[in-house]
Amino acid sequence: MTDIDTLQKDLANLPPDHPDRRAAAVPAMLSLQSETGYLDDAAIEKIAEVTGLSSTEIEELATFYSLIYRRPTGRHIVQICDSVCCSMRGADQLLTAAEHYLGVSLGNLASENAPTVLPSICLGLCDKAPAALVDGEAAGPLSRTLLEALLKRLQTEE
Amino acid sequence: MDTILIDGRSIPFEPGENILQAALKADIQIPHFCYHAALGSLGACRLCAVEIKPKDSDKAAHVVMACLEPAQTGLEVSLSAKAAQQVRRHVIELLMVNHPHDCPICDEGGECHLQEMTVACGPSYRRYRGNKRTFPNQDLGPLIHHEMNRCITCYRCTRFYQDYALGNDFGAMRLRNEVYFGRFQDGPLENPFAGNLVEICPTGVFTDAVFRQHFARTWDLKTAPSICPHCSVGCNTLPGARDGTLRRVRNRKHQELNRWFICDRGQYGHQYSEHNTRPLSPRVSGTNTDYRSALAAAAREIQAAAERTGGIGSVREDLEGNVMLRSLLNDLKGIFTAFNDPELETATLTAVSRMQELDNTPHLAALEQTDAALITGDLTFHAPMIDLALRQAWRNGAKLAMLHSSAAQLTQFASTAATIAPRKMHDMLTQLYRQISRQSGANDAVTQTIKTIAATLSQARQPLMAGVVETSTAQDIIALAELAKALESTAQLIYVLPGPNAYGAALLSAAGETVTLLRAAERGEVQTLIVAGSDPLSEPRSGARWRAARQNINTLIVLDCIATATAEAADILIPVAAWPERSGTFVNYEGRAQGFSTVFHRPEYLPSTADIISEISHLLGNPLRDAASMLQDSFPGFQAPAPGTPGAHISAQHLPIQYSELIQTKSHSSNNGWQAALASWLGDDPLAGFSPALTKLAPPNAALINPESAVRASLKNGARVRLWNSVSSVETSIQINPSVANGTVAIQRSILARLGIGHGDSVNLEQLV
Amino acid sequence: MEAILTRHLDQDNPQNLAAYQAIGGYRSLSAAFDLKPEKIIETVEAANLRGRGGAGFSCGMKWRLRGADAPSPRYLVCNLDESEPGTFKDRYLLYGAPHAIIEAVIVSAFALQAERAFIFVRGEYAKGGHRLIQAIREAETAGLLGRNLGGSGFDLHIEVHLSGGRYICGEETAQINAIEGKRPNPRPKIPRPSTHGLWGQPTTTNNVETLVNVPHILINGAEWFRRLGINGGCGTKLFCVSGKVKHPGVFELPCGTPARELIFKHAGGLDNDERTLLGFLPGGASTAFLLPQHLDVPMDFDPVAEAGSRLGTGSLIILDDTTCPIETVLNLTRFFARESCGFCTPCRDGLPYLAQILTAIATGNGSADDLTLLDEFCSTIATQSFCAFAPGAVMPLVSSLKNYYEHYEQHVITQRCPFDASGKEAV
């Protein structure tokens, strides 16, 4: 049984207007996304069914948050910080380098095996600037060479 | 009274009011966007900036938002202060950064709040040099056109749709300057009040998709106060016409009724008057002719029939038309009724008499203060604005209890809801009555539902009983009234009546005349039948009998503004003016008489029903006096309420209240025991049925049964079935729906009519193989 | 100085329950349970523990003002949604010692008699959040959480809420909406969360760094805590130093430590010794610039405010003389424009407008009128926005117009960025 199924069972017994249903929406989305990589329309409808909210109500939340992905993502996600400290240390060049390396603009998938590279607000890794999160793990300070090596590894590893 | 000073003017305020509310009441127009009287303050747009100087304070004057600042005695407010003006100018400048400069071709132009505010507060020239943000639009269905680039993100639309109308298929997506108001996916808005987005939006994001198809500039529209003809609530409307055609209908504020809003049926049902099947030329024996010939033919047939003439008025015909027809029949000594179904007549007269007796029928604004309600039947599609008022009551904490036979939208807000087969409703209400009045017979055997509802109602400060006449028997109606009486004297009673003037029609009808007329017709004793604004041949319960009786009627004279089955079958068809094309009076469910004006004239000559009856009486050589005098005979001191006024309670003698002996007990035989229930929808009234925008939203015409019944009858979702009785047979498919009562099959009016049965009647159901 | 909060932090291998208890962890529970809740609040107030999340409001006073008679259920929210650019101290706490956070939440919830606590962790710290959840499970199994925890008669459930990710979720009322599953727009100032917070119930929100001080105060006393600070400050502070310095990092130092010591001693001075300091943001992205002349200002709430800025999160972002201040301000303004929740006009439409003007100036396309425009709009945005987000957002910009005006002029006059020798092309 997946987390989302467990949640569905827990919520099933609550009355339709119970506040826990709404409160479960974002955790449910993150949980489902951890299995599927991103949330397509069917996933939004699934969350609506689990929580008892409407798909529009779920979409209102899904589209607000930066870490809920409504577009296909790669097997790996690289978030490159573009905020002040990383920017002072060349984050912009890293982002350009990533685009150049992948051959697509940020957020788009070059191929099935390609990682998703996204710009991010300050990751709280200013001591490692310029920094990135690679599948949630901190990486930095990065250089163009290190980044390209990283992307290459992510793209080719099984 | 406490006052604040606005630019030196002393303005009174009520405790709890903010500066903006106090100012608007005094007609001081502080610019604003996100504040709306129905929705309250939000503080998002930041336009209503004013400078305040607190009294007895050494605090410097500072700029605040008038919508968020409580009014306090002696507070000095300046709208004209430079600092406040600068904030307002900046806010407008920022809102205009992304707003398209398409005013000359924008369909909101001329009635755009943003346009007005920009002229009033904003800079005349833009300084922004960047690109504008653009959005794709969504297809929101046939009623609303979406143009997101114009959005200024005031959140009025979502606050209305989600918070006020309690819809959940429209919302705010994304964030920053990319906030997008729309649906999860393209598709028609589901809430029956969605049309209000057009007016609630301060600019042109949501516009009237029907009006757009035949657009006119707002300043070119002819308008006059009118009353909505689509149900018994009597919402005030402002139709707009140009070049002899009706273009749109907007709500018009009535302090006690619809106030700022209107339902989608009221806003879009008007297309009946422009429908291409609408009769515009008189017709005798299938041939178009002029009024003079048609009226002469009618008079000839009436003269020939003399006392063998019958007359059917209508619950959607105005007081004037009904009273003239009744007077004509009186003079001829023929039979008159304003109803075309005996049971509906009895139920309506019973309901009106009980509301008269209890004398505690709330208007919509008062309804919102209700703290508990028992609702039998579906209010949403029989009286949408009563539903909307109860949604407000629910938001204020009211407990709603629902007893219904088929799907009813309000159940989603009910604290207790039970599905009850139509013929079990009376028993349910009786048990409830016993439980509440602690009569003998109240015992522990009653269900938890009854106990809960009884407790809810007994504990309420001001409980409300609300019923729907069309789906109730007279006994149900009496039971609901007795329930209200058994509760405290504060209990309120509402019956949704079967038409915009059903109350007036009831006052003009003598009990039992419908069945008398029907039987006379069946026996061939009616030679000429005059039908004004009614469609007996399509009537669900009596339609089959009327269709049979039609064979015995020599001449059928029909006066109507829509192409009903009865109009199609007429020997003499006399088209009449639609409601915005004439003046008249409707009496709503409260007994409130409201006048409506002629908004415009079509190019064709289209007299009112009253005018035509008057003409006929002249041709008969026995001229009737005018409708106003006739109404004064029936209602002492009656003065037709001027259109645009709040209207007045009609002073009429109370109808006698014992009708139970008139109720025919039908033999309900059915080999597998199914009861039919009416499944209503938004376009489900005789006029709105001619509105293409609404009929596009019609639900599939299926047979709805609940899962338990489905299992018992071994029927699966989508199964093809035949519904039949001695009259007719209809093939349709099964739709399983848990909101339908056990043993009940919910079907739309058109199927009921084909089978010649009404809500609660028996029907046979068999699966097709 | 001996580190208090960071002494046992281990980013790679944080203590499990047993190890944490072995170094004295959870000792404050018995100290707390021996006291009446009011007494704890009194002690915290006497310690002058001020909010570490940026506002600097007295923690004890906040707790006292909520009132002991607040109706149940009462909630405590531990704010670990650290997203302020330049700030990474809470990450150290989360990854380094999850049990210290749990201990802090338990004693604080006890003081507030809150029966349910939420730890709101930013989504980018999900790995740390999962470690924290593990630690909570450990504590629950050991009876340190749940009903009658530690035999105290007090019940507490802690839930970790992983954010979907947005800067605005760090705002107290937006965070409440986020936990409830509503769109995280900030709520109106009235009614206050202390009476009408989560689900309309009394709710107290504190930054995680604030809370982790509480167990130490309970064990060692208010007076001990006050003495930890210098130059008028109380307690220690987790300072972050980043930007153009040799050794960016988190430094736990006495509250009141001068900026000069932080930058030049602990962070190793500027990247390149040849360079000179242009200025610094003392408390994260939403604070005003301080100049080299402010290097001796004690890094504490009041002295920094007197110098014209805010201590904020105590995160110093350092600019040297190769850093274009306009480029920096542009980056910050874009950040805030991107993270605006979109609720009120000045923030939603004003910040992107400012970013657009700044872009023009930074790329050599600015005019003198643009400087007036910036000034004009900043005043409306700073004073007329719905929440504190936008006023904070324009703070660096407003101060840069004052402190670096000659740089703006130079950009406008020469129509290029003087810091960019190669000369950037107009975008």
From TrEMBL, chain A:
Keyword Metal-binding attributed: yes
Cofactor: [2Fe-2S] cluster
Keywords, in A-Z order: 2Fe-2S, Iron, Iron-sulfur, Metal-binding
Binding residues annotated for [2Fe-2S] cluster, in chain numbering: C81, C86, C122, C126
Cofactor binding: number and manner: Binds 1 [2Fe-2S] cluster.
GO molecular function, one term: NADH dehydrogenase activity
Family stated for the protein in its record: Belongs to the complex I 24 kDa subunit family.
Protein name stated in the entry: NADH-quinone oxidoreductase subunit E
Organism of derivation: Nitrosomonas marina
Automatic annotation (TrEMBL), chain B:
Catalytic activity: a quinone + NADH + 5 H(+)(in) = a quinol + NAD(+) + 4 H(+)(out)
EC number: 7.1.1.-
Cofactor: [2Fe-2S] cluster; [4Fe-4S] cluster
Cofactor note text: Binds 1 [2Fe-2S] cluster per subunit.
Domain 2Fe-2S ferredoxin-type: 1-83
Record-level Gene Ontology MF annotations: 2 iron, 2 sulfur cluster binding; 4 iron, 4 sulfur cluster binding; metal ion binding; molybdopterin cofactor binding; NADH dehydrogenase (ubiquinone) activity; NADH dehydrogenase activity; quinone binding
General function of this protein: NDH-1 shuttles electrons from NADH, via FMN and iron-sulfur (Fe-S) centers, to quinones in the respiratory chain. Couples the redox reaction to proton translocation (for every two electrons transferred, four hydrogen ions are translocated across the cytoplasmic membrane), and thus conserves the redox energy in a proton gradient.
Protein name as catalogued: NADH-quinone oxidoreductase
Lineage: Bacteria, Pseudomonadati, Pseudomonadota, Betaproteobacteria, Nitrosomonadales
From TrEMBL, chain C:
Domain NADH-ubiquinone oxidoreductase 51kDa subunit iron-sulphur binding positions: 326-371
Keyword Heme among record annotations: no
Keywords in alphabetical order: 4Fe-4S, Iron, Iron-sulfur, Metal-binding
Cofactor dependency: [4Fe-4S] cluster; FMN
GO molecular function: 4 iron, 4 sulfur cluster binding; FMN binding; metal ion binding; NADH dehydrogenase (ubiquinone) activity
Region called Disordered, residue ranges: 181-204
Full protein name: NADH dehydrogenase subunit F
